[in-house]
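Model: You mentioned two targets. I'll fold them one after the other.
Researcher: Yes, keep them separate.
Model: Target one:
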Amino acid sequence: MKPRISMITLGVHDLEKAIKFYEEGLGFPRMESPPSVAFFTLNGTWLGLYGWDDLAEDAQVPANGEGFSGFSLAHNVPSEAEVDLVISQALAAGAEVVKKPQKVFWGGYSGYFKDLDGHLWEVAYNPLCWVGPVDENT
């Protein structure tokens, strides 16, 4: 198996609001998709948005999850200033800042926000291993 994450699907409570948050608020490029789901192209992977209850039903698990899920998404950027910019952009789009951008113990700079459905996103700059754009052909 060639290790790779092809798509990340988030369960959302209000698909229209979530689409607006990611497409207009964060500027994610939306792909054509059926009305019950939304797909966005990321650099080397896709982000899918699907109704919370529908996603739980599809996975055959209870939909009443609560609290910390032990899961976060990360977006790495090339500078501390860009961390601040992305966190500000998310806040303006309706996100909640959970951890203001700051220097962190591992030598980088990061902050966290929650999207409209409480999914945690870390925005980070790591001067030791900046991961830039992914080659779509690999």
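Model: Target two:
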Amino acid sequence: MRVNHFLAPPRFTRFFCYPDSFGHYFDDPTHKENREAGQLDSYNWHIVRGGRGYLEMGGEIVELQAGSGFLYGPGVKQCYYADTEEPWDIRWVHFNGAGIKELLQGKGESEAWTFSWKNAERLDVLWGKLLTCGVPSLQGGEARLSALLYEMLAELALNAGDTLGAPSHGQRSELIEAAEWIRTHSEQPLTLEQMANQAGCSISHFSRQFHSLIGKTPIEFLTECRIVHAKALLVSTELSVKNVADQVGFSSSAYFIQRFRRSEKITPEQFRRLRRG
């Protein structure tokens, strides 16, 4: 069974992203796509909900099952197909827009990006909403469709992991719990060893996987949490900069000012005056 929706270009041409087609294929053992490089000038994104299928990538055949997916950037050669005995249940969307490359950090630009969305189950809910939208109405429908697609892409960028070298589903949960623990204890003099212990892994493994999942090192994340806390104290209290630095966990006010200025481009006192009007 194949469900297809095709859309005209939006009247407002500066949406961050907008689909030109989307659909849902299932119980179709004949499904196969083979596109030469340059043939499709939009992003092509699929999630696999059941069954199995295959993707040709780098001269190898990659098997994809429920909880996985793939993304091609514009112009990339594509070859993928359903298993004939147990055809996949997939949802797909073709789309374009400015800023997508930065949002997805270049994934899919030179070859297919395969990923796991087992820690991003909300994607399937959002995809269901997309399918029920169908052809948008002219009265606000295009804006809602663009916003929905952006939410889907943000969910993918934040929570989907590479199928190779990324944290497993269980490990992702442990890393997220460790990140929350760091946030709630950021005023304490935390060490990298203490942070790694929260995730139950070695310092080197923790640092590598934390950066892969969160997008920054544990120390960078800790500093960010302290600066966020400092902002609230600067605006809502009369504490001196030195006392703010002490309360949020910085070892000295000079280092606090240095890191705050690097992050916000202004000093803590300038931030206080600016936000208090």
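Researcher: Noted. Anything on target two?
Model: The mean pLDDT is 90.
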